[in-house]
Amino acid sequence: MSLHQAPYILSRRTFLGGLAASSSLILLHPFAVHASPRQAHLRLMETTDIHVNVLPYDYYADQPNDTMGLARTASLIDAVRAESTNAMLIDNGDFLQGNPMGDYIAYERGMREGDRHPVIDAMNVLGYDVATLGNHEFN
């Protein structure tokens, strides 16, 4: 395409047609069917950069926010586990620091021997299988 040609305009009809075609390819993919007797399918779920957002609350705005938090994510995790018998929940790190609740736990309330951080309690309730450490776990 030369610089003088008009860019391709994507119409709604073309977009929806392409979406339908690609969706049908996904449905036809071999992993979309059930596993054979000698085969297992594993569904991986991943979270990252939780930054102490456990509840659906924006601590900076000091108001509820239904678009954030592990509490909101819990229903999605439950839905995936309901449809997949083999599923693992993994976190990629940066879950301990990042909002005023985390600062309160670290600097005001503190952690005594045997205490568990609220994020760890939430991750245990959700049944995380694996978690890695990010740089914010060391700050």
Task: Walk me through what this model shows.
This protein has 139 residues and is of the alpha/beta class. It has one domain (35-137). Helix content is 36%, strand content 12%. The chain is built from 4 helices and 5 strands, in the order H-E-E-E-H-E-H-H-E. The protein has helices at residues 12-28, 70-83, 100-109, 118-126, and strands at 43-47, 57-58, 63-64, 87-91, 130-131. The termini are far apart. Mean pLDDT is 81; it is low at 25-30.
Mean pLDDT: 81
Number of strands: 5
Counted by DSSP, the helix tally is 4
How would you describe the shape? Answer: globular
Proportion of strand residues: 5-15%
Computed CA radius of gyration, to the nearest angstrom: 21 Å
What are the secondary-structure elements, in order, as H or E?
Answer: HEEEHEHHE
Going across the biggest sheet, name each strand in turn.
1-4-5
Main sheet? Answer: 3 strands, parallel
Poorly predicted sequence stretches spanning 5 or more consecutive residues: 25-30
Percent range for helical residues? Answer: 25-40%
Q: Determine the structural class based on helices, strands and strand pairing.
A: alpha/beta
Distance between the first and last residues' Cα: 51 Å
- The structural domain count equals 1
